[in-house]
Amino acid sequence: MVEMTDMINATINGVPVEVAPGTTILDAARKVHVKIPTLCKHPDLEATGACGICIVKVQNTGKMLRSCCTPLDEGMDILTETPEIVEVRRGVLELTLSRHPNECLTCLRNQNCELQALAADFGMTTSELPNIVPDLPLDTSTKSIVLDPRKCILCGRCITVCQQHQNVWALSFLNRGFKTRIAAAGDIPLADSPCVRCGQCSAHCPTGAIVEYDETVAVWNKLQDPEAYCVVQIAPAVRVAVGEAFGFPIGANLTGKIYASLRRMGFKAVFDTNFGADLTIMEEASEFKSRLLEGTGALPLITSCCPGWVDFMEKFHGDMIDHFSSCKSPHEMVGALSKTYYAEKMGIDPAKIFVVSVMPCTAKKSEIIRSKEMSSSGYQDVDVSLTTREFARMIKQSGIDFVTIPDEQPDHMLGAYTGAGTIFGATGGVMEAALRTAHYYVTGHDAPRVDFEMTRGLEGVKEGKLNVAGKEIRVAVAHGLANVEQVLEKVRAAREAGEELPYHFIEVMACAGGCVGGGGQPYGATNELRAKRAAGLYQEDQAGLWRCSHHNPYIKELYSEFLGEIGGHKAHDLLHTGYQVLPEYKR
Amino acid sequence: MTMSEDTALDDVESEVEEAPEDEIVVLAQKWKKKRGSLIMALHELQGRLGYVPRESAMKLGREMGIPLANIYEVLTFYNYFKLESPGKYIISVCTGTACHIKGSPKLLHGIENELGIKEGESTPDGEYHLQGVRCLGCCGLAPLASVNGKVYGKQDVTDAHGLLENVKRDEPMHVAAESADAE
């Protein structure tokens, strides 16, 4: 319903501006090309007004207000840049810097830090204040995310995203005043808290207080080891995000450059997780078909590619275990096949193969050791999982001119993929890919149109239905863990009332936007940016030769030469896993 | 927090034992329905145990449907709540404005030196717990300390030793919780 409301008219630095009621002064200023500095405010998150750097002066009243959380009022005459205002902002910065360690040169956020950028913008070269940094220990317990509370500026972004957007409640402020600090819930190690390692805290942190657990050194060392046979795979969402670290337009698909760079780094084979995504679909669509037609398992079937979601389900929704697809996530499948199928075919000792996966994700770092099934090859299937951010740093460390390097191809055996594999990186993509192949499995032919638009876009929960061979299939897609609850509640309510199930198939991704907005992706994600990254994936799908996983000739070859039947014994051993109920708190 | 609750528990007098689990269930039932009543529930819990052990906070959280993160935000925000077992003598030195002017920081330091602990800590033998608290509401007696609810007013801030001697001589009751107006 669109209701006509009176627009708000005001001036900012003398420039007239007209905005809808409720628009903040900060957003109104952007509209007239006035940049107000911000620190605690992230465009993706609700304002908390914690830092005070975005103050502006309302001439009419003489008041100084925080522009991030003050709506523009009719007739306001706003000034954003006077010596008085700048002086207050410098004061805020000086106080913030006075309790922030001067460790920029050795910090992972060096040259990519919002606080550092502001200090440079404001020319904070001297300070009257002593530098007093609280003596707080590092928390590396998750081996996925590192918490360094000394570098925390108490903006509260991580808490907002962890509590409100992800509904995990692993992080909170403790104490108050000067003693305020960020900590895991209950002041225990993060690994013992409900943390699901989604890494959204790290992706939203303005400083180096929460970062990915950096494993680039371990990978460099292996690449130098003459005994090691290093192979690598890249996730769908990495290809449309890593370019942001090199000045490419948001969403630019740089797959060929990534392959070329990885070879130059010394990887002996370059695979693509998109191949694993196609394989996941072969197994998962088959699982769906047999649950739907033969009643071999619980419906709705729920996707399991996202390790943050798997962890969340095991901790908070243990009653849904039966609904989970037993399929491993795509990078685990490629890992397992690297040390079996590829090793056999190439005559390489699997003990020497070192599998690195480049993921948009911090949770993948924990997934690779989550259970014994992650060592189905007889070795740990994926040895190290890097985030997109770590990968971007490795390119910069390697003397590769990423901007000009010519495209290369992957090693096709585990690297050729279809558009269905590519779209795994966006919310709804797994569902769409699965529906394409499930349609084929159920009817024996491809759907006349393989675009299932109902699964696309950034709506928190998407629902849709389609008709397959006279049968109505109802699906739901949720992303951002706080959105999961309502979908599962519908399922539970129907189950208890003995009513028809609301859905047959549910896709969940832990991060908003899916993997394109993953916790290991470049900083600054907003819905606008997520949409652009996703568009990069959908473009590739649209332009591709093959758009359904079951059309991938290398997948067919894999089954005929090695795996045997879809969902068969060997596939089960290498490509499937199980789940267990986990306690919310480990102690 | 480094101290293990288990060890701390062993050092405490027998009347300060952890409440049986079902007591927490009853407590949660009582407060669950009233919005914003977490503080009241925690008050009651601390009143019974002398402090709020993590296990009890987790249990209360589960029963009330409140994340532990929320409970710890509250527990650590207010000085009044204790996460570790307090000592036999809970010494609260007032650091409110009037007492501050009258030199209470000096008294606090003196006691810290006498006991070899910092504010907010307990002696290893579990005998003393020292804390600074905001106004105790009897500024006319500044500077003052309260020990297990008994007020020691108009103290000589240079004589922490004397205060501790008086406390020992008085042998106050082993009261687990202080009055709620300490915060």
Summarize the structure.
The complex is a heterodimer of chains A (587) and B (183). By secondary structure, chain A is of the alpha/beta class. Chain A has 18 helices and 17 strands.
Structure description:
- The complex is a heterodimer of chains A (587) and B (183).
- Chain A is of the alpha/beta class and 587 residues long.
- Chain A folds into three domains: 8-81, Ubiquitin-like (UB roll) (Roll); 97-212, 2-Layer Sandwich (Alpha-Beta Plaits); 217-575, Rossmann fold (3-Layer(aba) Sandwich).
- Chain A is built from 18 helices and 17 strands.
- In chain A, 52% of the residues are buried.
- With 183 residues, chain B is an alpha+beta fold.
- Chain B folds into two domains: 5-77; 89-182, Glutaredoxin (3-Layer(aba) Sandwich), CATH 3.40.30.
- Helix content of chain B is 43%, strand content 10%.
- Chain B has eight helices and four strands.
- Chain B has helices spanning 5-10, 21-32, 38-49, 54-64, 68-77, 97-101, 104-115, 160-170; strands spanning 89-94, 128-133, 145-147, 150-152.
- Chain B has a four-stranded mixed β-sheet, with helices on one face.
- The two termini of chain B are 22 Å apart.
- The A-B interface holds A 163, 169-176, 183, 185-188, 194, 585 and B 1, 54, 57-58, 67-73, 76-77, 83.
Overall domain count of chain B? 2
Structural class of chain A: alpha/beta
Number-wise, the strands of chain B total 4
**What is the CATH topology of the largest domain in chain B?**
Glutaredoxin
- Percent helix of chain A: 25-40%
- Helical region count of chain A? 18
Secondary-structure element order of chain B, N to C: HHHHHEHHEEEH
Poorly predicted residue ranges of chain B: 1-16, 172-183
Architecture per CATH nomenclature, i.e. the level-2 architecture of the largest domain in chain B: 3-Layer(aba) Sandwich
Strand arrangement within the widest β-sheet of chain A reads 2-1-5-3-4
Q: Let me know the CATH homologous superfamily of the largest domain in chain B.
A: Glutaredoxin
Percent strand of chain B equals 5-15%
Radius of gyration of chain B: 17 Å
